[in-house]
């Protein structure tokens, strides 16, 4: 029986590409048009695992996705980096001058703003998915509407690329995480990355003390992101990614942070692929 992998978007999306590259070809896709639907399907058992974009080298971290993983007690079991190439596409026979609106996922639009600023007359419309927008343009034969999506999407849905590689920074990478409802056992000798969450007492030096512990235990802090606690003013949760050479160093740091933090949670311990 094929493993069912949840993706945000449809066939031809970047999530679909990650699913193909990370897993073998014997998978079935659960296409979801929102990350909330993706999480719900994972929790209900409709999908076995899921692919979720977590940060982009241009647009930064996708904070709501960290919150979704945490709130629903999901487990990060792996990661995958994908080079993102954004293209402007529309029905064949049109030129950029004919385009009145550009539709795409807000993250894709954000990644292409320098190009889009050249065309102030074009209206930017946020949509749920890059590939789904391309498909809709084809199905409804929408004149004057363009999508920002992958080259694969243009080929699958019969659109013509009006401008290739329009992302602001050509080396545009998105980090995706692989999530499950239950944790997967990964041998300690293969674990060299962890995603954690902690909350600290609101006093001077509390964050610095935790960061010093990470440094003393030879952890490399690759990302730190704060998120305010809605129910507690001026209180923050910190989402942190660390890499390390020896699991024993991380285990020592974890034991110390468990003591120092008011709240501590491991979102995932897995293999660093970068």
3D structure, described in words:
- Helix 8 (206-216) packs antiparallel against helix 9 (247-260).
- With 274 residues, this protein is α/β, with parallel strands linked by helices.
- Strand 3 and strand 4 form a beta hairpin.
- Strands 1, 2, 3, 4, 5 and 11 form a six-stranded mixed β-sheet that branches. The chain has a five-stranded mixed β-sheet with strand order 8-7-9-6-10.
- It folds into three domains: 3-84 and 172-180, 3-Layer(aba) Sandwich (D-Maltodextrin-Binding Protein, domain 2), CATH 3.40.190; 87-163, 3-Layer(aba) Sandwich (D-Maltodextrin-Binding Protein, domain 2), CATH 3.40.190; 191-270, ACT domain (Alpha-Beta Plaits, 2-Layer Sandwich), CATH 3.30.70.
- The model has no long low-confidence stretch (mean pLDDT 94).
- 37% of the residues are buried.
- Helix content is 29%, strand content 34%.
Topology of helices and strands:
Blueprint lengths: L2 E6 L5 H9 L4 E6 L2 H10 L4 E8 L3 E2 L1 H9 L3 E9 L3 E4 L10 E4 L1 H6 L1 H4 L6 E4 L3 H11 L4 E5 L1 H6 L3 E4 L9 E8 L12 E7 L6 H11 L3 E9 L7 E8 L3 H14 L2 E8 L4
Helix pairs in contact: 8-9
EC number: 4.2.1.51
Protein name: prephenate dehydratase
Keywords: Amino-acid biosynthesis, Aromatic amino acid biosynthesis, Lyase, Phenylalanine biosynthesis
